[in-house]
TrEMBL record:
Alphabetical list of Gene3D superfamilies matching this protein: Isopropylmalate Dehydrogenase (3.40.718.10)
Protein name per Swiss-Prot or TrEMBL: Fatty acid/phospholipid biosynthesis enzyme
Any GO BP annotation: fatty acid biosynthetic process
Pfam families with a match to the protein in the record: FA_synthesis
InterPro entries listed in its UniProt record: FA_synthesis, Gly_reductase_pC_asu
Signal sequence extent: none
Length: 382
């Protein structure tokens, strides 16, 4: 009896010590880590597990190694490791998992978290692996929501959104502004460049201008790799939190992705990231955010901005040529020539061009205001 009492007292004092160190006096989040398959060996993953355990995470290490303070679940290879991870998640033994690859269903993709080199700011990258939608623009709109969910679960109640200047950026911005107008709260970041705006450039990636950088998942994957390993030449991901949790409407499990190139410091922080999401009740936040977005007309907006197959371009004759020094920004590159033809139909001479912030339509200074109104009416710009 005395022995059991001593063990209970030791456990209580251990929890108090963890609470003082981590600031949380609740149950320690239980996070599984698959350690086999890393390019840097199992020792690299176990080193991360030990450090995360000291920081207040209850780590279930799936592999062959053992260490004090870490629960080891023995498996013989990587394949068995993933099967065991699935089992632990399904049975509720662990609250979440960190792993090197995972087959997310369409509609679910991961929100990365990086430390940007310019100012040392943390920035969420939405998204980095998986596919939120097979339609590019819809995917980026959904990525923005996933970023907001993740940031809120990590304690930021009003994260700022920036949209990387890639194909689909302008359409995504218009869609998100419609969602905002309909009552879903979105705070847009302003680019650090002189001309501002919510569409971000490379400078903003390095500086971490927005709390959440929205992009397609392939571009996001490149960004997270570069930001995590820019000091190591790419072979060792040393900074940041990895590729993050899979977020999607109705998705009910917490799985975070790292890379086979991820080093111990990044894996440690990915485990802490997972624990933070558990404590922040990310799945509950996701349900609330999707419900709020739907109330603001998300489904109709997604249908409106889905990319439709282009019909054969109507033959339109250009009006007489004139000097074009007025630039209209904010049009998607795929819509550029259609926008020019739309102005020609209204007897306004226009040309397509490319400015430092992206595609532009060039018209005369005298026609600039009228041309903008036509393009807005036709849905080419917001």
């Amino acid at each position: 009896m005395a022995g059991k009492t001593e063990q209970m007292i030791a456990r209580v004092f251990g929890q108090i010590a963890d609470g003082l160190e981590t600031g949380s006096f609740g149950a320690r989040p239980k996070i599984a880590l698959t350690g086999m398959g890393s390019e840097h060996g199992e020792e690299n993953a176990m080193a991360a597990a030990r450090e995360a355990a000291r920081a207040g995470v209850d780590v279930y290490y799936i592999g062959t190694l053992e260490a004090e303070g870490v629960t080891t679940v023995k498996v013989k290879d990587d394949e068995e490791g993933h099967q065991k991870m699935e089992e632990l998640l399904k049975q509720g033994v662990v609250d979440g998992a960190v792993t090197m690859h995972y087959p997310f269903p369409i509609g679910v993709s991961t929100v990365g978290r990086a430390v940007t080199p310019g100012l040392g700011r943390e920035m969420f990258i939405a998204n980095t692996t998986g596919t939120s939608s097979t339609d590019r623009t819809e995917g980026m709109i959904r990525n923005a929501l996933a970023g907001i969910i993740t940031a809120k679960a990590c304690g930021n109640p009003e994260p700022t959104i920036g949209i990387l200047n890639v194909d689909g950026a302008r359409q995504t911005e218009m869609a998100l502004r419609e969602l905002q107008k309909n009552g879903y709260p979105i705070r847009f970041a302003e680019s650090s460049r002189a001309d501002g705006g919510a569409v971000m450039r490379g400078n903003d990636v390095l500086k971490g201008t927005p709390d959440i950088m929205v992009t397609d998942s392939l571009t996001g994957n490149v960004l997270i790799k570069m930001l995590s390993s820019f000091t190591t030449g790419g072979s060792f991901e040393s900074t940041g939190y990895g590729y993050g949790p899979g977020i999607g409407e109705g998705y009910d499990r917490l799985v975070l992705i790292i890379s086979r190139a991820s080093g111990a410091p990044l894996i440690r922080d990915a485990l802490k990231f997972a624990a933070e999401l558990v404590q922040g009740k990310v799945l509950e936040i996701a349900a609330k955010e999707y419900q709020a977005a739907k109330k603001a007309g998300l489904e109709d907006i997604l249908k409106k901005y889905q990319q439709k197959p282009k019909e054969a371009a109507e033959e339109v004759t250009a009006p007489p040529k004139e000097v074009v020094t007025g630039a209209i920004q904010g049009i998607e590159i795929m819509d550029l020539e259609d926008g020019v033809r739309a102005l020609w139909k209204q007897n306004i001479y226009a040309e397509s061009g490319m400015g430092c912030t992206g595609p532009v339509i060039l018209v005369s200074e005298a026609n600039c205001e009228k041309a903008e109104a036509i393009l807005k009416e036709a849905g080419f710009i917001s």
